[in-house]
Specification:
This protein is α/β, with parallel strands linked by helices. It has one domain: Vaccinia Virus protein VP39 (Rossmann fold). The protein is built from 6 helices and 13 strands.
Amino acid sequence: MPTPYYEQSGVTIYHGDCREVLPLACDVVVTDPPYGVALTAKRAKQRGGGVVSRPGNYVFDDTPEYIAAVIVPVIELCRTFAKAVVLTPGTRNLWLYPPADDVGCFFSAAGTGMGRWGFTCSHPILFYGADLYLAAGLGSRANSHGQTYPNDANSVGHPCAKPLPMWRWLVARASLPGMTICDPFMGSGTTLVAAKQFGNRAIGIELEERYCEIAARRLQQEALPLEVA
């Protein structure tokens, strides 16, 4: 086990290849792995005007072959030790993943980018394992969520950071209070920030050190835990 890059207030970051760190003691895996779309940069228009650019320059090949050879086996490994695995695979290489127990989505009527058939208005969510709320006798909850909030992810120094309100919903939907959440493709640490806000323990693994540093800074700036909505 490598030495933690960051460890504070129940949140741990490991800098390295998740294949060399997993498996870990956790309850749930919540992650946004690479999409295999050859992403090299991000350009986003802001509501108030101007354009935000974020370089990619990943240390891995963002290709379908990489998804099939590396990402999918990691997800299959996570399914062997976590009670539930929840991930957002993107649309282009969705079919490379094993069949999920359920499929939800984030929906945005305004679109979340361009696809081969026009504006993409939904982002799929794959659910593996039992619904932890139903298993605990806590009733049914929606498996999808509409984007009714501003996108704050453009302020994060990562080309595909996820909006924190979006990820707060996913973390709360995928886990119960007190559970430990793992993100093997941590990126800028949004999963960990959301988990910390809810008072959950969390573990993140990231291949690129610059994103480990961004995640550590975000966690250090984070306020006290919030109540689960």
